[in-house]
Write a structure and sequence with these properties.
By secondary structure, the protein is α+β, with helices and mostly antiparallel strands. It contains 10 helices and 13 strands.
């Protein structure tokens, strides 16, 4: 019997490749969370292919080092390495499981959130691990043509496996595996308020009283505006009552049918747009409300204005470039139904092509600025934590 060709590269090349793979996975994973347009689809492909290549690299690595886990040989360094192995395996497994239609109910979070959490933990553990065990591959093995070929074969098989994954899902009859290019699955499109309610961390205001709510348009404008609910949401009865305290992550059933025939003033605009949440679902609807460009025209942005920030009553906020903001909608209705409280009544941002976390709910302020506020990244994460 002839000897099988050795596919596995030398240990230090495997280790260096694992490090490179984690860097690629972290970068593409992070970018994927803010990509919602088809032009960004390649980021998801690279993430998946790098993940598949990592499965093989990690298997080689774990086979090589498993003898170090003998119970009598364990010390702090090795325990950390073992933990890294477990977390990295779990991160890969949750990613693959998601692709094959898996789901998990973790209260407000699901399988994709778990995948993201594990994926973010890997680099933290890896930094500690490398401080103890880092070694560069030798120049010779790094420059070795055979290693380059092995590497190309590994990435190539990852790409083929990723391409074949839809066929595999079809053969296995895996249900719930149809995904948008972002990885998200469809939920409750074209069905009014009946799609999931998702709030980041702890953003959970009481239902908003129309009579005390108003929308301000200010910042770098010639004519700041303050509009009452009746001015901006004409003729609409109080919507979404009975939704207070709904479970986060649940589907909002609290659809009010009270006013689906009201509020069709002359200035109402409509946009069809798809909300794609990073927790792994999307929902497409016809949204009705006020075109942001119309508010901006009334307020008159000053020269030098470049960004528009949308701010929630909770402090949650996000900015869009001025030209993009013009085409965005401040929606008061979804598929003709008054927006429910959970979905952001009286008014929420609809930002076509942007990921869901940028679609600010319970908007009370539109501010025109020269620069975007970097603190809004933080606000997205901590908003509501302090009430
Ligand atoms: N004020 C505020 N707006 C918010 C959020 C939030 O927590 N607070 N969550 C965002 C996220 S992560 C998503 S996916 C969408 C979800 O909108 P929905 O709850 O109407 O489905 O709202 C976004 N707007
Ligand atoms: Mo989201």
């Amino acid at each position: 019997m002839g000897r099988l060709p050795r596919i596995e590269p030398p240990p230090r090349v495997v280790d260096a490749s694992l490090l490179a793979a984690v860097v690629v996975l972290l970068a593409t994973g992070a970018v994927s969370l803010v990509s919602g347009r088809p032009a960004g689809a390649w980021v998801f492909d690279v993430h998946a292919i790098a993940g598949l290549a990592t499965v093989v690299l990690l298997a080689w690595k774990l086979r090589r080092v498993r003898h170090r886990l003998a119970p009598d040989a364990l010390d702090a360094t090795r325990l950390l390495s073992a933990l890294l192995g477990v977390v990295a395996t779990a991160a890969l497994a949750t990613g693959v499981w998601w692709v094959f239609g898996g789901s998990l109910d973790l209260g407000p979070w699901g399988l994709l959130n778990l995948h993201i959490g594990l994926g973010l933990t890997v680099p933290l553990l890896l930094v500690l691990h490398l401080r103890q065990r880092f070694a560069l591959p030798s120049r010779r093995s790094a420059a070795d043509r055979r290693n380059a070929l092995r590497y190309a074969a590994l990435v190539g098989s990852g790409a083929i496996a990723w391409r074949a994954q839809e066929a595999t899902n079809a053969v296995l009859g895996t249900t719930g595996a149809e995904r948008r290019f972002t990885g998200s699955r469809e939920e409750g499109s074209d069905d009014g308020n009946r799609f999931p309610v998702t709030s980041w961390v702890a953003d959970d205001p009481d239902p908003i009283d129309r009579s005390s709510w108003s929308l301000t348009v200010d910042g770098m404008v010639g004519e700041p505006l303050e509009l009452s609910a009746d001015e901006v949401v004409p003729g609409q009865a109080d919507a979404g009552e009975g939704n207070a305290g709904e479970a986060k992550g649940g589907t909002d059933e609290g659809d009010s049918d009270a006013a689906s025939d009201a509020g069709t003033g002359p200035d109402r605009a409509e946009t069809r747009a798809l909300l794609d949440c990073t927790s792994g679902w999307y929902s497409e609807h016809d949204w009705q409300g006020v075109r942001v460009g119309e508010l901006l025209d009334a307020a008159g942005p000053e020269s030098g204005a470049a960004w528009v920030q949308f701010r929630s009553v909770t402090g949650y906020r996000w900015s869009l470039p001025l030209d993009e903001a013009r085409d965005a909608l401040l929606a008061t209705r979804v598929d003709g139904h008054p927006l429910s409280h959970g979905h952001g009544a009286p008014m929420r941002l609809v930002a076509p092509g942007r990921r869901g976390f940028q679609w600010v709910k319970w908007v009370e302020s539109v501010r025109v600025t020269r620069r975007r506020e970097l603190g809004e990244w933080l606000a997205v994460f901590v908003s509501g934590v302090d009430g």
